[in-house]
Specification:
The structure is a homodimer. Chain A is built from 13 helices and five strands. The first copy, chain A, is mostly helical. The two termini of chain A are 28 Å apart. The mean pLDDT of chain A is 94.
Chain lengths: 337, 337
């Protein structure tokens, strides 16, 4: 029996960080053998924030593929592709946009949140409003069954599910599987500065490819418990970024040491510096193999480009097939195929 | 030197009528040798009104091509194509949508008018709002210089011109010619019932392929001057549909007879029936060759289909080339081509 499919991906507006890892990347790695996995770079969508400097997107796309390879996705199994290389996806999206009400698109909570978060006011493009439709085409074009995403994408996915159901109903078929959502174990990862969300624009990130020295420096400068002045003050573990990272990035072999740190921290028997030094070691053990694989592929840009070309052509075949099926069912351009 | 290009077309929601003829079709015929002409069937866009019954669009598309051939467009010169056969057009539209503000799209007066005219309230699709963008892609994808349209499309064209200018600016090129608009000699043709606009849903049309008998019947039932009861009452020529049609569809050889009718009508010296009988003759002379060509092609569906296939493949080449140029300038997917 054919494997079920995963579609997920990144919008190439910057390098990926440890928040992306626990939000979605680790699920990609975990499931890559169980599912046929398509990893998309939504480069055209990146224009919705980078329309004035479009030429930087190509490099971000390349860097995002490096990040995905770095965390251990195997290019022999995984299809890496870019939106912009697959015109059929946009024709699918155009058809889908005829089945989504304008009001429904604007009610999308993720769209509303992004408008608020990015302070867009009423200055946003039509393409920005279209995004949930492009995302539906990303997913349905390859007929994905499962979509590992960050928690902020769940509302978009609901839109994709609605479109799949509506088009199945109008064509009286089961052309599209109704895609299931898989949310990562961490919805939002706290930033190094204690901000509830790690984000490039907030300057509170640890990137996947970052050097050992940079990571040590960022860890040693992390926000902890602002009420705690001296190492002998009782501290708070709950919500403390240092302990959150220890829990997320430590391995089983760190468990007893971390438990000991927590107990001593609450009792005021350990200083921040000692805990942070331990965390720096944890982060380095986590990041070293990622950095190593990243450097391996970074030194072989032609290999990476070929992976992207092959993947994009492969995804294009799938999208063209889906488009042909949908067009035939709708009786559009059947003589053109 | 290469000929300049025309792009124009129809949304396949029904057969074309004499209002379309004076609104745009006659300009297509007139200019077909001077310009390289691309005639589009916006079949995907037709989903914005026919989303519940999509399978009728294919037949409307075919009938619209028949109508265009019937008025004398030469398939040896003219490229007939369908939107849905050209995925590259939708990728162009997706890119363009990143450069058009959502507010600007909603301010489009044609969009506003259509919402009002069709009583859509706030029930319209995202695809409906996207339409001016798809139209821009229709035009700019083949780099058209001139767009013969009905007067209701002028606002859409302004949007296309803006997009062309914006993309030329962002790419620092003259990739897109700024398309000029050519409005037909009649903005809106009065219906047979005196309604200022002829329209399928109003039941006040004369279709291009209609039989002699049907046309005679419609002409004899036309609205004239409601204040005039008897043939001896002085009548009004101005705004009288019968005289409007005589002026539009009569030839030079009708000029003196029409002038005579007008003079006698104003003086109450001619009955409606006599004028209508004359108009029936005028309409038949106008429609007979159109009907004949229509029947010729209608009897050869395979020939028509081949015209559409060849044209769609030709338009697809042009769109793919434009997309490749734009993608390269924006540095999107350059390694995929």
């Amino acid at each position: 029996m054919a494997k079920k499919r995963i579609l997920t991906g990144d919008t190439p507006t910057g390098k990926l960080h440890i928040g992306h890892y626990v939000g979605t990347l680790e699920n990609r790695v975990k499931l890559q053998n169980e599912y046929e996995t398509f990893i998309l770079s939504a480069d055209t969508h990146a224009l919705s924030t980078l329309s004035k400097t479009p030429t930087v997107i190509g490099e971000h796309t390349f860097q995002n593929v490096l990040d995905n390879l770095a965390v251990g996705l195997d290019p022999k199994n995984v299809v890496f592709w870019t939106e912009s290389g697959v015109p059929e996806l946009y024709e699918l999206a155009a058809i889908m946009s005829m089945y989504v009400s304008h009001n429904r698109a604007l009610r999308n909570p993720t769209v509303k949140d992004e408008i608020k978060m990015k302070g867009l006011g009423d200055h946003f493009s039509l393409g920005f409003v279209n995004y949930p439709i492009f995302q539906a085409a990303d997913i349905l074009g390859v007929k994905a069954h499962l979509v590992p995403v960050g928690v902020d994408q769940v509302a978009h996915l609901e839109q994709s599910r609605e479109i799949a159901r509506d088009l199945n109903a109008i064509t009286e078929t089961e052309l599209f599987p109704i895609p299931e959502v898989l949310v990562g174990r961490v919805g939002k990862l706290v930033g190094t500065d204690g901000n509830p969300k790690m984000g490039k624009s907030l300057g509170n990130t640890i990137y996947l490819g970052e050097s050992k020295e940079e990571v040590q420096k960022k860890v040693m400068g992390m926000y902890t418990d602002p009420m705690r002045i001296r190492a002998t003050d009782p501290g708070t573990v709950e919500g403390n970024p240092v302990f959150i990272y220890l829990d997320l990035f430590g391995t089983d072999s760190d468990a007893s040491a971390v438990a000991d740190f927590k107990a001593r921290y609450v009792e005021g028997k350990v200083g921040d510096i000692e805990v942070k030094q331990y965390l720096a070691g944890v982060m380095e053990r986590f990041l070293a193999p990622i950095r190593e694989r990243r450097e391996y592929f970074e030194a072989r840009p032609d290999v990476v480009r070929q992976i992207m070309i092959d993947g994009t052509l492969r995804a294009r075949e799938e999208n063209a097939l889906t488009l042909k099926e949908l067009r035939t069912l709708l009786n559009l351009s059947v003589f053109v195929g």
